[in-house]
Amino acid sequence: MNKGYHFVSLKELLIISGVLIVSAAAIVIPELVSGDAEIAVIQCGDSVITADLSQSGEFTLEECGSTVFEISDGKIRIKESVCPDKICERTGFIGSAGQSIICVPERISVTVTSGSDKSDSADAVVG
Amino acid sequence: MGKSRYIAKIGILLALASAIQFLESMIPIPLPLGVKPGISSVVIMYILMFMGFRPALVTAVLKSGFVFAVRGFSAFCMSVSGGVLSVLMMGLCLLIFRRTSKDMGILAVSVTGGVFHNIGQLAAASVIAGSIYTISYLPVLVIAGIISGIFTGTIMRILLPHLERKNVYKSSSERS
Fold it and tell me: From CA B51, how far away is CA B135, in angstroms rounded?
């Protein structure tokens, strides 16, 4: 008698592998294509602030509450956040164009771009 | 199965799913984006397979209610969006298996659930954070969803024969 189920068929395995490969390509290719980012666009709620990644140091922004940002070596991270889950802190430093850090509870997003092709950065990410 | 028995069963399963999720959230996993294995989705998958689509959807939403109580509104939005989309797509997946009159592929269902759970969460995060750049997380989250789906699907595969032995499958097929 038929069990009514199976674990995985070859066809299903191929579809899953296909999605896996496309996703991996969508991660790797933009990293290779896009160069180092030059500016960080920080969005806190409704206000948007731009930061220069060539200037290292720590700073807080009035609009972003007590969130501490740190720029070092052309990269930026959220050093301290009041959010409960600390996912944004764990994301760490980002520095290649198109990457971003999101803090959902605090409604903060940091996106780094190469400045010159700012409008293209979203496309570069989608790849 | 009588109605009160049915409700009691859903309640127990809901408690089980919430407890698993809570325990999981207490284990710090050093992965970015708060990626989790999502073992509680095994419970949701069980409900979907053995009791039907509606109770699975109800349990997923109620489980998010538990998230709201413990972690607040934005976590609730992400949980409900991920949970509902996940159940919808797993239900669709099961429906396709039924329509094509083939037996269901456990891994296909669990991977679908894992991937769309993450997509739903990402969609909610994008709306809450008000940023479209969250889309750059999509490939990572799809891969994380696949891995988590393989994990939960494997657990489901191990559990299924034992669940069947207790005649759960038979009693559910009478319902649907």
Answer: 35
